[in-house]
Amino acid sequence: MKIKFLYLWMAVAVLSSCAHALPYQSSQINPPSFWSRLHSSKDMASKKLEAMIIPDNNAQVEQDWWKHFKDPVLDQLIKESVQNNKTLGIARARVQEALANLAYGNADQMPDISFVGTGSRSNNGLATFYKPLNVSTAELQASWEIDIFGRNLPLLAQAKEMAQYADAMQQGVLVGLLSELGDDYFDLQNDKLQIKITQENLANQQKTLDLIKAQQKGAMASDFDVERAAAQVSTTESKLPTLRSAYDMTLNRINVLLGAVPGSRDNEIDTSMSMQPLDQGIIVAAPATVLANRPDVKAAERNFASSISNKSYAQKQFFPDISLLSFFGIEGVSKMAPVYPWSIGLTVVQPVMDFGRIEAQIHVARAQEHEAFLNYQQTVLEALEDMENALTGYKNEMVRNQLLRASVQENQRATDLAQRQYKSGFIGLLDVLVAQGNLLEAQSALADSDATLRKDLVHIYVASGGGWQIE
To answer: Residue 245: exposed, middle, or buried by beta-carbon count in 10 A (0-12, 13-18, 19+)?
Structure first.
């Protein structure tokens, strides 16, 4: 009897260890073989720039993408944010929580063995012949749900799938953190450059105002000319508070992303280094490779797999619940030989009539599975959209950047020419002011485009799912 009992426990232990997370589940959406926005250019300028983005079906996703910007400050900020960011820390804690739940699920498949010990001294009257007696007991109690029909295996599989889901979500948080930090860093550089451009133009406009005032004293300029030049100076200077506010707020945000109090790391967040030239060729992986790499797609797929396991668990509730109960003990009473009580029992609970409760739970699980599947498909579609948007954004911003660069050069020559002709008396003050205003606008637009171009490149790397493997 004891040998058969031992064999039964060993068989159930082997059965309980057979729970595995479900393998990869298809979204049933076939990704395209190429990125459509890389082959949709109609103008010659865009076609010339297509060489800047090189699709390669054999390429892997860039993980340490920020190194392409050749900025040691950005490298250091990335490193510190990965170590100290609080949102990322929360995601890591959730992974640990999911792993702990998985460990609990594994342990819950094993027997529950307890030791119970008691001791007492009592006089129970006639029952003890009016004498006090010492009574002591020691027992080992064991209970085990024998999952012969695999009722609980889907729960264990689901715990594994949710641990994988939590890990993918943590990877997604990391990718999002690096994306936000990259965007904020280039915004900060842009804000600082915009302030510099505005101050330089303000200085030039102030020189023009001083010249007009000197001409006014010699009756060579009117009060109207002075007021018009002064108005332009005030208008340009009014841009500075807004730019400084944007700079400070971006600086505060970067501090928080580093896990620091706003203002405490300002000196380390040095933006004195100018933006370095971008790589001439950007390798882009194939759509299928990108989808396989993106953490949000992996998380949606694991969530769908979890819903399948949950449905399986609901369906198996029709099977009986079988439990083994046993104990072995020793009981001693004063001046009496000890006794050794023991017991082995089997409990079977079979649902007979639950008025549709199990069936309703199955319907709920099926609806949740369908919802998770549609969410999985939507995530795949949005991932493809995200990458297409990033590619077309970068490509068209590159065209705009080249045009703005030419505009700055042209406006600089126009301003220099206007100032010389004004001093020679060939043109009026209004022409000078218009030229200066156009130059400021062109320089500001170019600086903004330089930052946007780098942010668009960040978006390409992030849309590919780059950055989550750096830990």
So the answer is: exposed
Per DSSP, the three-state class of 60 is coil
| Per-residue pLDDT at 345 | 79
Tens of pLDDT, residue by residue over 314-334, are 888 888 877 778 777 787 666
Assess if residue 468 is contained within a domain: no
pLDDT band at 459 (very low <50, low <70, confident <90, very high): very high
Q: What pLDDT band is residue 48 in, cutting at 50, 70 and 90?
A: low
Provide φ and ψ at 426, rounded to 5°: -85, -30
In angstroms, the Cα distances linking 388 to 29, 47, 108, 384, 401 are 16, 17, 47, 6, 20
Q: Determine, yes or no, domain membership for 6.
A: no
CA distance readout (Å), 299 to 26, 54, 296, 418: 13, 29, 5, 60
In a domain, 274, yes or no: yes
- Tell me the C-alpha distance between 249 and 269, whole Å: 13
Among candidates 354, 469, 457, 442, which has minimal Cα distance to 74? 457
CA distance 304 to 95: 18
State how far the alpha carbon of 230 is from the alpha carbons of 208, 210, 222, 286, 440, in Å: 9, 9, 13, 57, 16
339: helix, coil or strand? strand
Average pLDDT over residues 149-153: 80
In whole angstroms, give the CA distance from residue 199 to residue 239: 10
Confidence of residue 123 (pLDDT cuts 50, 70, 90): low
On whether residue 332 sits in a domain, the answer given is no
Q: Residue 196 and residue 191: Cα distance in Å, rounded? A: 9
The domain tally of the chain equals 1
pTM confidence score: 0.83
Task: Give the number of C-alpha atoms closer than 13 A to the C-alpha of residue 139, restricted to the C-beta side.
Answer: 14
Read off the CATH number of the domain in which 261 is found.
Answer: 1.20.1600.10
Residue 390: per-residue pLDDT? 93
Identify the band that residue 424 occupies on the pLDDT scale cut at 50, 70 and 90.
Answer: confident
Token pair for residue 1?
A: 């009897």
Contact by Cβ (8 Å): 224, 307: no
The amino acid that residue 385 corresponds to is: E
CA distances from 298 to 20, 157, 170, 286 (A): 17, 17, 11, 17
Contacts of 196 (CB under 8 A, 6+ apart): none
Number of residues written out for the chain = 471
- Print the domain residue range for 30: 18-112+148-319+357-463
